Amino acid sequence: MRWLYFISGLVGSVMMSGGLILFLMKHRAKKRRTFLFRLAETLTIAVTTGLPLACLAYLWANRLFWSDLPDRSLFEIRSFFIIWALSLIHAAVRNFTGRPQKGWNEQCCVFAAFALALCPLDFITRNVNSFLSGFDVYKTVDLTALCLGAIALFIHRRLIAL
Description:
Blueprint: H1 2-31, H2 35-64, H3 72-96, H4 100-116, H5 118-125, H6 128-132, H7 137-161
Helix pairs in contact: 1-2, 2-3, 2-4, 2-5, 3-4, 4-7
């Protein structure tokens, strides 16, 4: 049942992101230089690539902060919002300097790198015996991150070709 919720969430996210991107493509020719269009593209980049990047930052923080750290959950949540804010700032800088394509490309590349490196990070930070025994939630998250990282790498390669 959890997988059904997860797949439904992914499909809904792809549908909303696709709608945002199609909106931008439709209005790009006429309104490319306007402030509101650049703001819309900035927010689209921050939501479409920045939010998943922030989720990966949360997973990285979960693996890198030691378990007996006081207020560990607070640090994990802060890492999520800091990375999301940085992706918003990055998208704004790229858009308002006239290079939105580079903003999309760079954030896709960073997402792919973080997603593909999550499994090796998990292998380094977890106990070897627990890593090799059975199929648990960590391995499922790692496998999902690997798949999403491969998709992001494919999108990154396609953006370079454009």
